[in-house]
Write a structure and sequence with these properties.
mainly alpha, about 65% helix
Length: about 180
């Protein structure tokens, strides 16, 4: 799926303006929180955030900035998964999920060295993914995606367990985010 189609799907899923009292992100439009919009120079009312501004933020903050575009060049399904997870949980969390999964799938560092789990997708993470895909192929990409979905789902449960106010979102997170790209 192209990044433009992915962004269209995210915006369709996220919808327009919301300001749920329990949402830690506060006022949100097109899935972009006020804090993120401000960081990208938008100073207006969140209800008036242009869709084009949201698209630009998605491409910059959640695709090219964290190098998920480079992940997608090696395995499109994993790039797509990280993009979606990064939007909802932060790109650092998505990067950590990838690094953790690659570490447990490297057969005791036989296939490639263990990675430092820091959330930054850099040359070592990309090299590990490339080695993993060379070893495991398309079927391995699916296994890796399942591992990422499992880590994402577990994190949603942890968030809801830690704060009862977040239980209002748990069902939607799991229903609409985990495995949503399959």
């Amino acid at each position: 799926m192209t990044i433009d189609k992915q962004i269209d799907e995210v915006i369709r899923r996220e919808g327009g303006y919301v300001n749920h009292p329990n949402d830690r992100g506060g006022p949100t439009n097109w899935g972009i929180t006020q804090q993120v919009a401000r960081a990208y120079g938008y100073a207006g009312d969140m209800q008036a955030l242009p869709r084009s501004a949201a698209v630009n933020i998605y491409k910059t903050r959640y695709w090219t900035g964290p190098k998920f575009d480079q992940v997608a060049a090696l395995c499109p399904a994993i790039g797509d998964e990280l993009f979606d997870t990064g939007i909802n949980m932060g790109t650092g969390a998505a990067g950590k999920f990838l690094q953790r999964a690659l570490n447990v799938l490297n057969r005791g560092a036989v296939d490639y060295p263990d990675l430092t789990v820091d959330g930054n997708v850099g040359p070592m993470t990309l090299a590990a993914l490339k080695a993993y895909m060379a070893k495991r192929g398309v079927a391995g990409g699916e296994v890796l995606r399942k591992a990422l979905d499992g880590l994402q789902c577990a994190r949603y449960v942890e968030i809801a367990e830690a704060s009862q106010s977040q239980e209002a979102f748990a069902y939607g997170w799991i229903a609409n985010r985990v495995g949503a790209l399959t």
